[in-house]
Design a protein that fits this description.
Blueprint: H1 6-14, H2 20-24, E1 30-33, H3 38-43, E2 47-55, E3 61-68, H4 73-83, E4 99-106, H5 121-134, H6 144-156, H7 167-181, H8 189-197
Parallel strand pairs: 1-4
Antiparallel strand pairs: 2-3, 2-4
Helix pairs in contact: 1-6, 5-7, 7-8
Length: 203
């Protein structure tokens, strides 16, 4: 089996093309992660919002405009409230361009090295139910965690994650893990996925 450093794995997972709106502006987005409030976590509200930020001469955010909504106006407003008047590193600016495109992640799990351990079964169920309430024609949310999990399986080639390399078996395991999570909310969702993807047995 090939071996990879964790940082190499994460680079492969998180370096993804920016949105069409950001590309059309000729500017790569700056990635920002914001912690959700306990109330938002309890309701399962989550998503990614793309914002255009104007920066004042004091190197602070002066105005924010939603370029691509998260799908929740409440979440968009929350992101704006957290970033309004935030300091901006001068390294991100130049004299001719005092604006930035911000891709803001608002999730219950870490968008980073600890994503596998930072997400509980209870929160996965909350997030799933909230998403399906707004998307009744879907069966699961094929969002960031879904793609990070599949990407990790491909890059690391771990035998116990082989099921995640195929979208059909990954989706089956996802649904089975959520059912388990409804009876064991403190279980790690990552661990629940591994168990579900291996026929209900610990690998």
């Amino acid at each position: 089996m090939r071996t990879f450093s964790l940082m190499a794995v994460l680079a492969a997972l998180f370096l993804h093309p920016c949105s069409a709106s950001a590309q059309s502006s000729g500017q790569d987005p700056v990635h920002v992660a914001i912690d959700l409030t306990p109330e938002l976590l309890e309701r399962g509200v989550h998503g990614t919002v793309l914002l255009q930020a104007d920066v004042n001469p004091e190197d602070r955010v002066a105005q924010l405009i939603v370029v691509e909504s998260s799908g929740s106006g409440e979440l968009d407003d929350f992101a704006i409230s957290k970033l309004d008047n935030a300091p901006v590193s001068p390294n991100l600016l130049d004299e001719e361009n005092r604006s930035l495109t911000l891709e803001v992640d608002l999730y219950a799990f870490d968008i980073g090295m600890d994503f596998a351990r930072s997400y509980s079964c209870l929160q996965a169920v909350r997030d799933h139910d909230w998403y399906l309430a707004g998307n009744p024609d879907e069966t699961i949310e094929r969002g960031k965690y879904y793609h990070m999990f599949g990407g990790l399986a491909i890059v690391t080639e771990r035998e116990e994650m082989a099921f995640a390399m195929r979208p059909d078996t990954r989706e089956q395991a996802w649904l089975a893990a959520l059912e388990r999570c409804r009876t064991d909310g403190e279980f790690s969702f990552f661990a629940a996925l591994i168990v579900a993807g291996n026929g209900g047995e610990n690998p």
